[in-house]
Specification:
Largest sheet: none
Distance between the termini: 39 Å
Helix content: 55-70%
Number of strands: 0
Structural class: mainly alpha
Order of helices and strands: HHHHHHHHH
C-alpha cells in the first residue's frame, strides 16, 4: 500500500525526497564505501525520521514496499512536474555528493548522467549546467561521461 497524500505540493516534495535519496545513495555507494560525510549529507537531505513518518523506511533503516512504489512514481512524474530549475538544483545536490570525497570518479559521472536522463534534462542543458559547476567538479564534458558508459 502506497502513501496517500491529498496535498499535491507535499506529494511532490515527497517524490523529490525519494528520488534524491535514491541517487544520493547510489552516488555514495559507487566506490563501495559510505563515508561519514556522505552519510551526513544523505541524512540532512533525506531525514530518516521524515521517511519513517511517511512509511517509507522502517525503524531499523530498511526501505519499505511503499518506498519502491514512491520511487516508481517519482521516476514517472518528476520529469513532467518539475520545472527545469528544480531539476538542475537536484543535479547540483547530486554533484555535491559525487565530489564530497574530493574527486569525481567516472562511475559517479555515469550516475549523474543517469539522474539527468531520468529527470528529462536534455544533454545540452546538462552539459551547460556541469560547465557552470566547474568550481565543484572541474572540467567535465558530457562526452566524457558518455564514454564511461561503454567501459567494462
Amino acid at each position: 500500500m502506497g502513501v496517500v497524500m491529498s496535498d499535491p505540493e507535499r506529494d511532490l516534495e515527497l517524490l523529490k525526497l525519494v528520488f534524491s535519496r535514491h541517487f544520493l545513495l547510489k552516488l555514495a555507494r559507487v566506490d563501495a564505501k559510505l563515508l561519514v560525510e556522505e552519510r551526513q549529507m544523505l541524512d540532512e537531505v533525506c531525514p530518516p525520521a521524515t521517511l519513517q513518518e511517511h512509511g517509507l523506511m522502517a525503524a531499523d533503516g530498511t526501505l519499505t514496499a511503499a518506498w519502491v512504489d514512491q520511487l516508481e512514481t517519482a521516476r514517472r512524474e518528476l520529469p513532467a512536474r518539475l520545472p527545469m530549475a528544480e531539476k538542475l538544483a537536484m543535479i547540483t545536490r547530486f554533484v555535491d555528493m559525487a565530489v564530497i570525497d574530493g574527486d569525481l570518479h567516472h562511475d559517479e559521472g555515469t550516475v549523474l548522467l543517469e539522474a539527468a536522463t531520468e529527470l528529462d534534462v536534455d544533454p545540452e542543458t546538462f552539459n551547460a549546467h556541469l560547465d557552470g559547476l566547474t568550481d565543484q567538479v572541474g572540467q567535465v564534458e558530457l562526452a566524457d561521461l558518455e564514454d564511461t558508459q561503454s567501459d567494462p
